[in-house]
Structure prediction request, 328 residues.
Amino acid sequence: MMGVSGVLNRIQVLQGHLGLAPVNPAPGATGTVTSQGADPTFASALADATGGPGSMRLNSQATGQDVVDAAKKYLGTPYVFGSTDPDRGLDCSALVQRAFGDLGIKVPRLSHQQAKAGEPVANLAQAKPGDILAFDSPVDHVAIYLGDNKMIAAPKPGDQVKVQTVYEKPTHIRRVVSDFPTISAPAAVRPAGLQGSSALNGVPYSDLFVKAGNRYGVSPKLLAAVAKVESGYDPSAVSKAGAQGLMQLMPSTAKGLGVRDSFDPEQAINGGAKLLARNLREFKSLPLALAAYNAGGGAVHKYGGIPPFSETQAYVPKVQKALTALGG
Prediction:
């Protein structure tokens, strides 16, 4: 007989199939439903949950241990069905989504969708830390494997996020991150040098560079090199021209990138990563992308290459030198 947790998760599965947000969320659940439809914030999250484009990607930049460490931050968080807010509580699939999301990796919202994420692992003997364990058919529970027959999970109502023994055989085991991936992105879209945070040991804000790099497909080492040249890793820096923060974004540029506060390191790094990713796609050349970061894409197009500005001419090799020093 299906328990309370199973019933609630089965309802969640059916809502996912129908594209519906919970009509009567449990106390503390995120999102509300009004006469006009689903809350926009919840609807946006649901769009990711339904497995749309970009809702999940195999990620070779973070490690399984990174996933485990991210999940352990939520130990003791109460189980609240339907909630994705750790300040209120998390359900089992929200914990999994949150742990990966903290590393800039999108996975679907619902447990039955997470059971299809990444690539399959044959059995528990081959499972590695960071793998997703899914249980029952249809899937109504998920957890993150820790190794040694242990897992971290948000088990059921009235309980909390905790470490457990893997108490039954998983029906699905999925690997979203891998230290040695068997599935690789095409070389044309796979940035060189993307790694876990250990690749930037000793660099300020290394975790933010890795997270933003994973999210936007830009080498964290490149982001760190740009920040070193732009501000010397000073989040309060302001240039004579008015560029602000760690990544020295002009206010108008920051606004266009969705950065509300250029002095906030995480927002600044995300904005810089977004801009560099755009430049790399547009110019298909690292020197030209860096030149566009410094002088603007219009100037690069106008001069058909690195603009003849002394600042930009010096800037590009400075960043390349800093990147080489970081092992990029």
